[in-house]
Design brief:
37 strands, five-stranded parallel sheet, eight-stranded mixed sheet, elongated, Immunoglobulin-like, Rossmann fold
Length: about 700
């Protein structure tokens, strides 16, 4: 408790009245002096005494309680603080600051931890928001009690405002205690330009740059490039120069490209040595060749399905007049288009994405050389779909051509001509082509589909059987051949579903899935592992033809591994989710399958340049006349200094010490007022003045 004396006035009448009286007195005195009247100065003296008494001067004596000054300490808990010994340095500095500041009298200490990403914030890639934390900490305290601020950080701050906006924080010194070392070295991979989508099988490129703070001129590095469904390659590339990496997308849908540069000895962190790109593949237009061996009721099912898709260019031929047909019709009366077999099956065969044979049989139109071309086309990545008719069970079957090499089903020579309802096999319940078809029933009940009336007998020699007859004979076979795919449907009765016979069935959905599986639609892969991050959750989905009980392995951006058990959801899908907080690349592995998911930016701001530096906070320390110090040189002493009237940088910091202001703020607990103009004394003085004035004027 302290006291302070000051002087004030407690006027007996309003100030405006006192001022008015003083003005009149001055005018009368001036008039008297101008006319050389006796006693004018004595009259002025008496007026001054009267006005002083009316102003009532008092002595103010205040009882004051001094308030403690406030020091704010902000500790950086951002992910970059986990590099090297930074976290240990920050913890040791915090403990030492607590001890030193606690030993300073009349000082209140507020410690704030900031920079740790909030749940779900990694997707926004906000970086380290240390300045916002400091502003928030200062917003609820009286600024005239602020002694100063101390920041314990590596200097990687990503929310610094313009220098003109620093005045609200720079009213007291801000000192920065830096973790890390000033001679740190780091190598990082920067993606400068990358496409988000591209046309399948067209040339694309990504521009990268390998930055190395300690690289020598002409130094090179090993760049590992991995493209989903393509393979790996290792390139020797220069450091510090822009690189253009060409690539092609092999399929529609999302494709992942991973880039990884080898770390160097003494590097800060390898977390920024990797980058993942997600590029969405788009097909220009799907080109489908449909060859119908004869006119039949189900021919339009295929045509209507493919023509309804605006992304499909359909080339359709129906064999109406085979070479063995001799009926004497004059050539000039024929209006048929000749089948361009050489152009389709030799010159432009590889331009098609899918070839469909619908109830086709050998008629001497296509020689074996063209069938061999089709075999090579499939082995090199093409797609073939064969919808069998009764001819498949005869010597005119396509199986009697070189296509037998790639067909998964061999004809038995029998044709079952009786009503039956197709059923899914155990594999069909899990395969994406048939899993989840409407009204498919359950594995123990019959589907609510219309019946078919013909099935072509076949033996499944390889591949997967997805549909079968009630007798267990295959109806739908799928197989992979080389880089391509082959599908066979052993019935020509699916058109009954499109006509709604006995309630019909999902013919459009089934045929659409079948065609797109043959063309390698990613969503229809039977063995697939997918990962995505939404709402702070890593969502993992595995599709397989067999049930897997072993958990998947998840590798976080910091290299830590965890296990995630998947739960069967039906239809061949097992999935689960886990919360994630770190920004970066998450790698998910299940057996031979592997995929990645990213959260936040490709190159997170937090690790874009993780070197400790005072440069980012330099405008703040300069504006507040603070300082920056490296903790590896030791923690400086802390002194309480008087707030100077003219602030200079040396006032708040010096060699081996940093200073905080003594603000001397207080609260008044008591007030005593003592009048200085005693009534009797003033009255006596006024009377004496009047007496002198009368005597002077009476002479």
């Amino acid at each position: 408790m302290t006291g302070a004396i000051s002087f004030d006035f407690a006027p007996l009448i309003p100030w405006w009245a006192i001022i008015a009286c003083a003005s009149v007195a001055l005018l009368l005195t001036a008039l008297g002096l101008w006319r050389r009247a006796r006693g004018s100065l004595l009259r002025l003296l008496v007026a001054i005494l009267v006005l002083a008494a009316l102003a009532n001067p008092v002595a103010r004596n205040e009882d004051r309680a001094e308030l403690p000054d406030i020091a704010v300490v902000v500790v950086d808990d951002s992910p970059s603080q986990s590099i090297g010994q930074r976290r240990q340095q920050a913890e040791a500095a915090e403990a030492a600051l607590r001890e030193k500041l606690a030993g300073i009298g009349n000082l209140e200490v507020r410690i704030v931890h900031a920079g740790k990403p909030a749940a779900g914030s990694a997707e926004r890639d906000e970086g380290t928001r240390l300045y916002s934390a400091l502003s928030l900490a200062l917003s609820d305290l009286p600024r005239h009690r602020l002694a100063g601020s101390i920041l314990v950080t590596d200097g990687q701050v990503h929310d610094m405002p313009d220098p003109a906006a620093l005045q609200d924080v720079a009213i007291a010194p801000v000192h920065v205690l830096l973790t890390g070392r000033p001679d740190e070295r780091d190598r990082r991979l920067v993606v400068k330009n990358a496409p988000t989508f591209g046309m399948v099988n067209q040339d694309l490129s990504v521009t990268l740059r390998i930055d190395d703070t300690g690289a020598k001129p002409g130094e090179t590095a090993q760049l590992h490039v991995r493209q989903q469904d393509v393979g790996d390659q290792i390139l020797t590339v220069p450091v510090g120069r822009d690189l253009t990496i060409p690539f092609k997308l092999r399929r529609a849908g999302r494709s992942l490209l991973e880039f990884d540069v080898a770390p160097i000895e003494g590097e800060l962190t390898p977390l920024n040595n990797r980058a993942v790109l997600s590029v969405n593949g788009v097909r220009d237009r799907l080109r489908v060749l449909l060859v119908s061996g004869e006119v039949h009721a189900g021919e339009r099912v295929w045509r209507n399905l493919l023509k309804a898709d605006p992304n499909v260019d359909l080339v359709h031929f129906t064999i109406l007049r085979p070479p063995d047909k001799q009926d004497g019709t004059p050539i000039r009366e024929l209006s048929l288009i000749a089948f361009p077999i050489r152009e389709l099956f030799e010159l432009k065969l590889n331009e098609f994405d899918l070839i469909i044979f619908d109830r086709y049989r050998r008629r001497g139109i296509l020689p074996n050389a063209y069938f061999e071309n089709i075999v090579k086309y499939v082995e090199n990545g093409g797609a073939l779909l064969e919808a069998s008719g009764p001819a498949y069970a005869t010597p005119l079957s396509l199986y009697r051509t070189p296509l037998a090499e790639i067909f998964p089903g061999a004809p038995t020579g029998q044709v079952r001509a009786e009503p039956f309802t197709p059923r899914l096999t155990a594999t069909g319940w899990r395969h994406p082509v048939t899993a989840g078809l409407p009204q498919a029933g359950t594995p123990t009940t019959n589907p609510a589909w219309g019946r078919w009336f013909r099935a072509i007998g076949a033996d499944a020699q390889r591949g997967q059987t997805l549909m079968q007859t009630p007798q267990g004979e295959p109806l739908l076979l799928l197989d992979r051949v080389g880089k391509g795919r082959v599908a066979q449907l052993f019935s020509d009765q699916i058109w009954l579903w499109s006509r709604g016979y006995e309630g019909g069935g999902p013919q459009a959905e089934l045929l659409r899935r079948l065609a797109h599986w043959a063309m390698k639609e990613p969503d229809l892969e039977e063995e697939a592992l997918r990962a995505d991050i939404k709402g702070g959750q890593l969502q993992v989905e595995r599709r397989s033809l067999t049930e897997h009980k072993e958990p998947v392995t998840v590798t976080a951006p910091d290299g830590s591994e965890s296990k995630l058990s998947l739960v069967e959801r039906g239809n061949g899908v097992a999935s689960n989710a886990m919360p994630v907080e770190q920004a970066g690349i998450y790698r998910v592995r299940a057996g031979d399958l592997e995929t990645v998911a990213t959260i936040g930016a490709i190159n997170p701001r937090e690790f874009a340049d993780p070197r400790a530096t005072p440069a980012v906070l330099k405008p703040l320390t300069d504006a507040s006349h603070g300082s920056d110090r490296w903790l590896i040189n030791g923690l400086p002493d802390i002194r309480m200094i008087e707030k100077p009237t003219r602030v200079a940088a040396r006032d708040a910091a010096g060699s081996g010490w940093i200073g905080l202001y003594r603000q001397h703020d207080y609260v008044v607990t008591g007030l005593h007022l003592t009048p200085l103009a005693l009534p009797l004394a003033v009255l006596a003085a006024v009377l004496a003045g009047l007496l002198l004035m009368w005597r002077r004027e009476s002479r």
